[in-house]
Design brief:
Blueprint lengths: L2 H45 L4 H20 L9 E2 L11 E9 L3 E10 L4 E9 L2 H4 L3 H16 L14 E7 L3 E5 L2 E4 L16 H11 L4 E7 L1 H12 L3 E7 L3 E8 L15 E5 L14 H8 L8 H6 L1 H19 L18 H8 L7 H11 L6 H32 L14 E6 L1 H5 L1 H21 L1 E5 L3 H12 L4 H6 L1
Helix pairs in contact: 1-9, 2-12, 4-5, 6-15, 9-10, 9-12, 10-12, 12-14
The structure holds adenosine-5'-diphosphate (ADP) and magnesium ion.
């Protein structure tokens, strides 16, 4: 080899090794970033842990707060609202009734003909609420609702006509905290779940709806005002006498249950004949030092329309789960360049990742996680993800959903404890406790639902868990509201005597 050739070879080797060094450095930097991303995930996972011991503490705290909220108004974060429902449906209700369900992204109108449990005819329509009305003014919102209701009434068929000379009656499911003054009256305490209409707070929502119905020329009486949890409880009880509580896991979360009237110190009315009263817990506002809160929950809360409120709801419900995932991913993108050296701009947009999309990614069963890839591309405009990265995202969904599901199970254990149904008592070996469930999160997020059921079984133990049944009561709330309108009908005496 001549001198020149040798020199060329040396240069060549040097060039190759320089390139190799660049590649290695690049890999090291990448693996450093990868480690950092996994650290963020790991730290989040650690903070989200909900071992059984912790869940028991949460359940006990729930029971304590239930007592406090029943003792006095303002005695607890849990409002423990008195529903004025002291008689749940028996199955004997008859007649044609309307129901209206307002409480989240959609509202529903429903017409039912009641003729016994095996003979219910239902017709309904679902309308989405224009987002501007959710943060506008009271009159516009109620005019819109009354208008849609009037349109639905106009579709009444021959067999759905009420007797001549009578007035149509409605059960109004209004799923926000309301301080009731009677079965058909109550004032709005505050908004939740993305609604914020200032001039409606403190107003009687039945009066507001009645005025709006008058404005659109609809003659209808609001005979019952109920929360969706109370409606679900009533709807569930109609076909199953063992239903003792209802839990909603949808956009938000809440629960109602049947309490002994003499265990409600703040109840100042007459003791009902049944001895019972349905309590709307407003459990979404529960908070406790035992809740596994993370920095992401704290920042989500700070940036929300209702900071400091609905902390339990913000860890559990459909409105928030996808948003928690987004916040963790954003941190991974910013601090660990998880998606490359620029932060995907869509990822910075609050609430862009919805829980149904999170659920679709979490349930992705394709070997190469195609669904995850598609969601990332369509929603966040992130492409070229590796399988390894997509696995991390599924893992993140698992952490967030599992925490929410296990915390909901702990809440239910709190109710069972309060009502003495968490263990099997002598002589009550066959007493079943059925929890009527509703809401899109519970209905559609299979891994969430399964995790909740497994946690419930784990918390109760083999024996007691046989007697506690978690049951989907699909749109029980609409039927329940109609049933409560029936049992509080202005024509009740007449119907009962004929
Ligand atoms: P609302 O709570 O508004 O009355 P729903 O009970 O229908 O209404 O619940 C809707 C919520 O359920 C949505 O906001 C969403 O968070 C959640 N949800 C709906 N579909 C799914 C799904 N496939 N996977 C997970 N969550 C879902
Ligand atoms: Mg609902």
């Amino acid at each position: 080899m001549g001198k020149v050739a040798v020199a060329a070879a040396v240069v060549c080797v040097a060039a190759v090794s320089a390139a190799a060094v660049v590649v290695v450095r690049h890999r090291m930097r990448n693996s450093g970033k990868w480690t950092k991303a996994l650290d963020i995930l790991k730290e989040f996972d650690d903070k989200c842990q909900t071992p059984i011991s912790k869940l028991r503490q949460v359940a006990d705290a729930m029971t304590v707060e239930m007592h406090a909220g029943l003792a006095s108004d303002g005695g607890s974060k849990l409002k423990m609202l008195i529903s004025y429902v002291d008689n749940l449906p028996t199955g004997d209700e008859t007649g044609i009734f309307y129901a209206l369900d307002l409480g989240g992204t959609n509202f529903r109108v429903l017409r039912v003909k009641l003729g016994g449990v095996e003979n219910v005819k239902k017709e309904f329509q679902e309308v989405s609420i224009p987002p501007n009305l959710m943060i506008g003014n009271c009159e516009d919102l109620f005019d819109f609702i009354a208008g849609e209701l009037a349109k639905f009434v106009a579709t009444e068929g021959e067999d759905m006509q009420i007797p001549a000379g009578t007035q149509r009656e409605l059960g109004f499911t209004f799923s926000f905290p309301v301080k009731q003054s009677s079965i058909a009256g109550g004032t709005l305490v505050r908004w939740t779940k993305g609604f914020n209409i200032e001039d409606a707070v403190g107003q009687d929502v039945v009066e507001e709806l009645t005025k709006a119905m008058e404005r659109v020329g609809l003659d209808m009486r609001v005979s019952a005002l109920v929360n969706d949890t109370v409606g679900t409880l009533a709807g569930g009880r109609y076909s199953d006498p063992d239903v003792i509580a209802a839990v909603i896991l949808g956009t938000g979360t809440n629960a109602a249950y049947v309490e002994r009237a003499n265990a409600i110190p703040k109840w100042q009315g007459l003791l009902p004949k049944s001895g019972e009263m349905v309590i709307n817990m407003e459990w979404g506002n529960f908070r406790s030092s035992h809740l596994p809160l993370t920095e992401y929950d704290e920042s989500l809360d700070n940036d929300s329309l209702n900071p400091g409120e609905q902390i339990y709801e913000k860890m559990i419900s459909g409105m928030y789960l996808g948003e928690i995932v987004r916040r963790v991913l954003l941190k991974m993108a910013v601090e660990a360049e998880f998606f490359g050296d620029t932060v995907p701009s869509k990822l910075e947009k609050p609430f862009i990742l919805r829980t149904p999309d999170m659920s679709a990614m979490h349930h992705d069963s394709t070997p190469d996680l195609k669904v995850v890839a598609t969601k990332l591309k369509d929603i966040l405009e992130i492409s070229n993800t590796s399988l390894k990265m997509r696995k991390v995202i599924v893992e993140l969904c698992e952490i967030v959903a599992t925490r929410g599901a296990r915390l909901s199970a702990a809440g239910i254990l709190g109710i069972l404890k309060k009502t003495g149904r968490d263990t099997i008592k002598e002589g009550e070996e066959n007493q079943k406790s059925v929890i009527a469930m509703d809401g899109g999160l519970f209905e559609h997020y299979t891994k969430f639902r399964n995790s909740m059921q497994n946690t419930m079984d784990e918390l109760l133990g083999e024996e007691a868990s046989k007697n506690v049944i978690i049951k989907l009561s699909n749109d029980g709330s609409g039927l329940g509201a109609a049933l409560l309108a029936a049992s509080h009908s202005q024509y009740r005496e007449y119907i009962e005597s004929t």
